[in-house]
Amino acid sequence: MNEIIQQLRRLNLAMLAxxxxxxxxxxxxxxxxxxxxxxxxxxxxYEKQIGWAAIGLACFLLxxxxxxxxxxxxxxxxxxxxxxxxxxxxxxxxxxxxxGARRWxxxxxxxxxxxxxxxxxxxxxxxxxxxxxxxxxxRRWRYSIIGLVLTLxxxxxxxxxxxxxxxxxFFPVLLGGMFAAGVPGRKIAVFLVGAGLIVLFVGAAIxxxxxxxxxxxxxxxxxxxxxISPYQRERIxxxxxxxxxxxxxxxxxxQSQIAVGSGGLFGxxxxxxxxxxxxxxxxxxxxxxxxxxxxxxxTGFAGALATLTLFGILFYGGLRAxxxxxxxxxxxxxxxxxTMLFCHVFINIAMTVGLAPITGIPLPxxxxxxxxxxxxxxxxxxxxxxxxxxxxx
Amino acid sequence: xxxxxxxGWEKGRLYVLALIxxxxxxxxxxxxxxxxxxxxxxxxxxxxxxxxxxxxxxxVRGKIFDRNGICLADxxxxxxxxxxxxxxxxxxxxRQTAQKAWTLIEQLSWVLEIEPxxxxxxxxxxxxxxxxxxxxxxxxxxxxxxxxxxxxxxxFPAAEISFDxxxxxxxxxxxxxxxxxxxxxAAGEDDDQQYHYYLPDxxxxxxxxxxxxxxxxxxxxxxxxxxxxxxxxxxxTGIRAPVPGGDxxxxxxxxxxxxxxxxxxDTCGAVVVLDPGTGDILAMASAPAFxxxxxxxxISVDEWRKLAEDERKPxxxxxxxxxxxxxxxxxxxxxxxxxxxGKAAADSVFxxxxxxxxxxxxxxxxxxxPHGEVDLVKALEVSCNVxxxxxxxxxxxxxxxxxxxxxxxxxxxxxxLDNEAAGLMPSKAWKxxxxxxTWRDGDTCNISVGxxxxxxxxxxxAVFTAAIANGGRLFRPRLVTGQxxxxxxxxEPVPPVLERDLHWAPAHLxxxxxxxxxxxxxxxxxxxxxxxxxxxxxxxxxxxEFGRKGSGQQRGWMILFAPFDNPRYAVAMVVDESISGxxxxxxxxxxxxxxxxxIHGAEG
Lengths: 393, 604
Description:
The complex is a heterodimer.
Chain A: H1 2-9, H2 13-33, H3 45-65, H4 68-72, H5 75-88, E1 95-98, E2 101-107, E3 110-113, H6 115-132, H7 141-160, H8 164-181, H9 185-211, H10 216-225, H11 230-240, H12 249-261, H13 274-277, H14 291-324, H15 328-352, H16 370-388
Antiparallel strand pairs in A: 1-2, 2-3
Helix pairs in contact in A: 2-3, 2-14, 3-16, 5-6, 5-7, 6-7, 6-8, 6-15, 6-16, 7-8, 8-15, 9-10, 12-14, 14-15, 14-16, 15-16
Chain B: H1 12-38, H2 40-49, E1 52-57, E2 64-65, E3 71-83, H3 85-88, H4 94-112, H5 120-129, E4 135-138, H6 143-152, E5 159-168, H7 176-179, E6 182-184, E7 202-204, H8 207-211, H9 213-217, E8 221-227, E9 233-240, E10 247-250, H10 254-263, E11 269-274, E12 281-287, H11 301-309, H12 318-321, H13 331-341, E13 350-352, E14 355-358, E15 361-364, E16 372-374, H14 376-382, H15 385-395, H16 397-406, H17 428-435, H18 441-448, H19 458-470, E17 473-475, E18 480-484, E19 492-493, E20 498-501, H20 506-521, E21 538-545, E22 554-562, E23 569-575, H21 581-600
Parallel strand pairs in B: 2-10
Antiparallel strand pairs in B: 1-8, 2-3, 3-4, 3-5, 6-7, 8-9, 10-18, 11-12, 11-23, 13-16, 14-15, 17-20, 18-19, 21-22, 22-23
């Protein structure tokens, strides 16, 4: 008992406070965004989110109090289990198809969880072990290559679901880990150039053939062959031309920008956002991927900046935990999780303000969603575990 | 970064990461600043102007025609009045908005002189569940109400005439089971249009409307219209054209369909008429039937309950869903199985004493009268049970079972209709699993005369009859013979599907057909009541008990093909509450075939 109290005293309190504040913010604005909308079990969404937050907090404490060395011993086990779950998503009675994508594991028609979210955690832990194993010379090519394979396998399975956005998170997490581990800049540059070439190729495949006069149907078939569905293409094209398909794919982007833009300095007040209340921002996305635009509309620039600051505290605290970590393993864990969180935050907010295409990446701790909530809070628990056991007074 | 120890790592890189993240947050903050404060005015004004109507442009559903181009399912324009609830709302509580909407509805009701069709509760529901959509408050308004609305529309900026099309079935109760009907679709989860709000389209609930829903439905479109506070429509900011659904052409001949329906209209039963050369369904009737136009504009609860709870099950398509024991009408299958196995020939003779004893159990011929020495042709003609008990045993159940499967029994025929039943062709393994008993010779005897656990659909019997008529080719029965998209003038033919060629030898078929010809054309044949004076037909009757054993309830079967030498029709009929197949179904088929030949005779 005493030991637990000792450990709790060494928690990074600023990070804890920032996390709790973001949770509260999320619940409050899910209440606002989803007013009158009931979920699967007939509960209001915000009530369900409170439940998820409670489960998340329990996981957070559990992982914070567990020695991360102990957990990383099972890194491969987690990883393989994650892969198995990702494959199970495609089994008809086990996986659930919603909105044309297979992202859920179900039991008797009830959605249980999204394996992709759990895989993110498992992947970070295994990468941390790969790069943080004592006495390993990470400057050698082999570790970067192994790291690349370890990220590409789950990413490929997730693209197959299809969930391009979630799959894309894996790559920057790998790069962040490699960079912090001390992999030479040249090797990282090779990876970056490779990624850049792929992006260029995909971009060219989307934009060029129609200009060269390829018929619509053949173009669609070509894109499907390289793994891009018609709606993904739409979203990317909408990103570059907001007047395209204003009734369909372009709607959310335009409405989200209008919502954020009309917020002004201090916003319209809690539950007064007209974009939100009038349903221009569709109810299906306002509490999830677009919750930040509700916050920005109702609390204005001040609220948006405060939210960003809370995330900044989390990132800073996480990287500081990496710096004071007792060993490289702990440090790599922190870097992996913080890079992952940063990517979510950046892509999600960039999307709501129109800086990035719509990808369906949720905002950590704030967006509605069970699996993601539990997995991100577990991740922060592990960061705290590293911090607790770090070398600081 | 000039020198990094071989095994070490540099915590300095963490600062670089921290700087990257700080820069990322900075970029986001700058972007938010730019659109909230730098260009905020622009977005604010774009929001004030933004009273955008999403007008739904419904897709017109495809039509269904019979083989002669007579329309079985059509559309009719339908006008209504909808209100845009979100335009009634300024900041404030939902209840006030609902009250406002209700006041508007009452005013409209007074001006247009029509009673409200919705309740305050429905307005509230709509407000909570799908506010961005216009709410239809009146459906099917007449021209008077439309004219009044046109005069007064400036007073009601939040209301508008809405257009939709209603499904109509010009032929009312004819072919009701085949055409099916439409109803409002449940919200689809399975499309990638998760970000769009559109009103549900009508969706096929039964019959062809359901089976071909994707083809018939088309895709609804939409239009964005910006509305000024005064209610003046500004401009269209986006449009997506609706894609009308495609049409279907059936092999069905409506005249034959009518004749077939009349033939069984006074009882419960089904009749199927196939073209043996293609498997096209020329007519398929199930009695009792129902009136399709009940479903046109939403059936009332009472009417629905009356239909659904009717003991005679008018909604049930007996031709493809009804499961019956085929009785003696199954004997041609036993005959062909034995012939193919070489276990029977034209001169195989068995003596019939009227009863047959097997392991202490007594099986008997109809009425227990002995037929004496009979050969296969005679046994078919007089439907001698004892002969077929012996033939079935001689043939062996395995051969019988496999021939029945090959001839399509025990499996769905694959007809393009929903809810087809597969029937049951019991196997030895089936009996062991389900009944926990081993297969006995008595079971083989029962199956040999179409009794026991055997269950077939009228359509399966018709497909089998067609195979006898066309030389052993088993076609997949089909309704749709042509499809055309909305932008095509001609129907693209759908080729018939040959399931399999059964490779029955002509000599074997000749024996079977001769027996079936005598069934109808010999005075002693069980199907003689169906005989026509000027057309030679061939068939087989059957009678099967149903309900509790000994209850005396019987169903009469008759299958036939005609004309004998060059068959153009393969028919299967089953009727409830019969004395026997020949007596009950025979005269009905006689009348039906006579009428068919009267109108169709010259064309073949």
